[in-house]
Amino acid sequence: MDQGVELKRTDRIRAIERLRDFIVRSVDGARAVEAPFYHLQLEKVFPDDVYASMLTAMPEASDYRPLYGQNQCNVRADGTHTRVKIDLFPEYIRHLPPEKRVVWDVVGRALCSEPVKAAFVRKLAPALAHRFGPNYAKVGMYPIAILTRDVPGYKIDPHTDTRWKGITVQLFLPRDASHTDIGTIFHEKLADGSLPKRTQMKFAPNTGYAFAVGKDTWHSADPVGPEVTTRDSILHTYFVDAGILRVLRNRGKRIGNFLRNELRNYVPG
């Protein structure tokens, strides 16, 4: 992917379609695993050249804004944050330098495309049917892709994700395989309420996982240690988009994030 200049409209469309189709093939070819809950293990999500461009185009620390987490779990005692984010929507990444913006614009648009959504729904059909019933494919899903960065001290306790979410996807973006032990952990909930670790995703380049959110989708992340500089990934979430409340919430959340970002980037004249 040429990062040197802004892509012409026709070139951008071709780049998005090429990436979209590659991601669809990656999802269709993903390994489906039943335990401890139904999930996909993704490999080579992006073409090699696109993945290299993404690593080169990583934003500066000042480009991110805090992702507070439930009950502000990502906020240290001194007020700094262990997880930050950038929404991969055009109106949000417009503040990035052109050579970085062109990369993340294509990635964001491809991930949020209808064919990619259809691929995840198709591949996660057994789990989606369990939650939504036989008409699961007709349930609206609103995609939001965010580039996240975790730093030493970040952790998250076992949880199942809010029921506002329909599908959770995380795509790992390390530069190498030197810290594969910091991937997301999946748990099984036993009858006594305990949550033993059953499997852990490897934090390896160009890999990831996906699952349909359910009552059994317990997952966590151990604390990121000082030996790690950053734990970069894309959290790609499909929010349930059925009913006026959810529809308004999903679009309102996008508008709210946009306004907060504009305020953060506002420089008085």
Condensed summary:
The chain is of the alpha+beta class and 269 residues long. The protein has helices at 9-28, 48-56, 90-93, 98-111, 114-123, 125-132, 244-265; strands spanning 31-33, 39-43, 65-66, 83-87, 141-150, 156-159, 165-172, 185-187, 197-200, 207-212, 219-221, 231-240.
Secondary structure layout plus pairing:
Blueprint lengths: L8 H20 L2 E3 L5 E5 L4 H9 L8 E2 L16 E5 L2 H4 L4 H14 L2 H10 L1 H8 L8 E10 L5 E4 L5 E8 L12 E3 L9 E4 L6 E6 L6 E3 L9 E10 L3 H22 L4
Antiparallel strand pairs: 1-2, 2-10, 3-4, 4-5, 5-12, 6-11, 7-10, 7-12, 8-9, 8-11
Task: Report on this structure.
This protein has helices spanning 9-28, 48-56, 90-93, 98-111, 114-123, 125-132, 244-265, and strands at residues 31-33, 39-43, 65-66, 83-87, 141-150, 156-159, 165-172, 185-187, 197-200, 207-212, 219-221, 231-240. The chain has 7 helices and 12 strands. The protein has an 8-stranded antiparallel beta sheet with strand order 1-2-10-7-12-5-4-3. Helix 1 (9-28) packs across helix 4 and helix 1 runs parallel beside helix 5 (114-123). The protein has 269 residues and is α+β, with helices and mostly antiparallel strands. The mean pLDDT is 91. It has one domain: Sandwich (Jelly Rolls).
